[in-house]
Amino acid sequence: MAVVTLGAHILDVLARPVPVPGPPGGPDTVVVDEIRVTAAGAAAGTAVALARLGNDVVSVGAIGDDDLGDLLVTIMSRNGVDVRGLVRRTAAQTAASILPVPPRGRRGGGGRPILHAPGANLTLTAGAVGPGLLGAARLVHLGGPDVTAGLNDPAFFAMLAAARETGTVVTMDPLSSFPDLLIAAAAFLPHVDHFLPDEAQAAAMTGEDDPEKAARALLAQGPATVIVTLGGDGSLVATGPAGAPDVRRLPALPVEAVDTTGCGDAYCAGFITGLAHGLDVLESARWGTAAAATVAQGLGSDACLTGLDDVLRMLK
């Protein structure tokens, strides 16, 4: 198989445009242009994006034995993701979020709360990972290990080490914005080849507000590459030894953004796809930039992502 995504699986319900903030004393019903339901989370969202970019993908995670889980499985399967690695929990619901998306050009801030139920993600453990699964993959993507704390386990780290010894490449993308969870997730870094946090996550893990200083500090913890995504400012790609890394900045592509939900997942998917095609880190990051720009033009984590050829046209 080409890629295993492992970690957070979330069902997103998105609506746009939602006034920010809503008018006080306004109507009980707000008519919007669009409502979508998507597979999300740093494992499920990335899995769908990877499949749409032409990769063979197996996704591993924990979801509830409920209607939300059935819908998430349907969405992922319809997009070509192998979902046999998902375990169903009877005692927990499928993780889900409700996201009101503001009009174009406006930020939600405190007027746009995201409603989130962590659900079954909290129950994922190394026992859900089939024997030999990671070693059989060319690439393994850890999506949101900060919110799947059950994987922070010596047994799972041993699985990663064994897979890497056979040539499997490991990438990692955190999910949360909670400093305590992110700091705990640093335990994964010695077992990761390429780490892709956003700017706020990198700062929370290192105490460094400057992305380049944060990347250097994260390189010192084990990865060969740290890519800090910077939203509209593009991304910073740092490779090599922490003391003297090669640091490059890639600009974001100019698009009219509708919704940035899932852009990080799309960046990871484009980057991983580049690696799967034998590209170097910097060119793979350019593929990630293009995939993120594609998704930003629609609603939800898989918006506008119709195939690799369309993504690569953006780079021309």
Structure description:
There is one protein chain. By secondary structure, this protein is α/β, with parallel strands linked by helices. The chain has one domain: Ribokinase (UDP-N-acetylmuramoyl-L-alanine:D-glutamate ligase), CATH 3.40.1190.20. The protein has a nine-stranded mixed β-sheet with strand order 5-4-1-8-9-10-11-12-13, with helices on both faces. A four-stranded mixed β-sheet has the order 3-2-6-7. Strand 8, helix 3 and strand 9 form a beta-alpha-beta unit. Helix 1 crosses helix 7, helix 5 crosses helix 6 and helix 7 packs antiparallel against helix 8. About 2% of the residues have low confidence.
Could you write a compact summary of the structure shown?
By secondary structure, the chain is of the alpha/beta class. It is 29% helix and 22% strand. It is built from nine helices and 13 strands.
Search tags:
four-stranded mixed beta sheet; globular; 316 residues; UDP-N-acetylmuramoyl-L-alanine:D-glutamate ligase; single chain; 13 strands
The CATH architecture classification is: 3-Layer(aba) Sandwich
End-to-end separation: 30 Å
Given helix and strand content, the structural type is: alpha/beta
Low-pLDDT parts are 105-111
Task: Write out the CATH superfamily name.
Answer: Ribokinase
Q: What's the count of strands?
A: 13
Rg over C-alpha atoms, rounded to the nearest angstrom:
18 Å
* Largest beta-sheet details: 9 strands, mixed
Shape, please? globular
Please give the order of strands in the largest beta sheet.
5-4-1-8-9-10-11-12-13
